[in-house]
Backbone:
C-alpha cells in the first residue's frame, strides 16, 4: 500500500510516493530507503526510514533533473556549479518540501 501526492518542482509535476517498508522493499529493493526515478518524475520513500536528510537528498536529484543537464556531459566543476546554483536558488523550497513530505507522512494512512 502507498499514498502519493504531487509536488511541483521547477514547474514540473513530480509524484511523491510514501510506501510501507515491505511495499518499498518489494518494489525497489531493500538496499535503499528512497529513490528518484527521473523518467516517471517519481520520488519513492520507505516510510519507515523517512528522514529529512534522505528527503533533501532525493529532492536534489529531482532539482538536478529539472536543471536540463541530462543531454550535456558535465565536467566535475560543472556538476559542482549546478549543485551550487540549486542550493542558491532552491534551498528554501528544499526545506519547505521536506517539511511538507514529512507532514504528509503523518497525515495519510498507509
Ligand atoms: Zn542519490
Residues:
Amino acid at each position: 500500500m502507498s499514498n502519493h501526492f504531487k509536488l511541483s518542482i521547477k514547474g514540473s509535476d513530480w509524484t511523491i510516493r510514501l510506501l510501507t517498508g515491505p511495499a518499498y522493499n518489494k518494489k525497489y529493493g531493500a538496499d535503499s530507503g528512497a529513490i528518484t526515478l527521473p523518467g516517471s518524475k517519481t520520488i519513492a520513500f520507505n516510510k519507515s526510514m523517512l528522514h529529512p536528510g534522505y528527503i533533501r537528498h532525493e529532492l536534489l536529484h529531482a532539482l538536478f533533473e529539472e536543471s536540463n543537464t541530462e543531454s550535456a556531459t558535465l565536467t566535475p566543476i560543472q556538476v559542482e556549479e549546478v549543485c551550487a546554483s540549486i542550493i542558491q536558488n532552491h534551498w528554501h523550497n528544499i526545506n519547505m518540501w521536506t517539511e511538507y513530505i514529512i507532514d504528509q507522512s503523518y497525515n495519510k494512512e498507509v
Observations:
- Residues 57, 61 surround zinc ion (CB under 6 Å).
- The longest strand covers residues 2-9.
- The chain has one domain: 2-105.
- The first helix runs from residue 21 to 28.
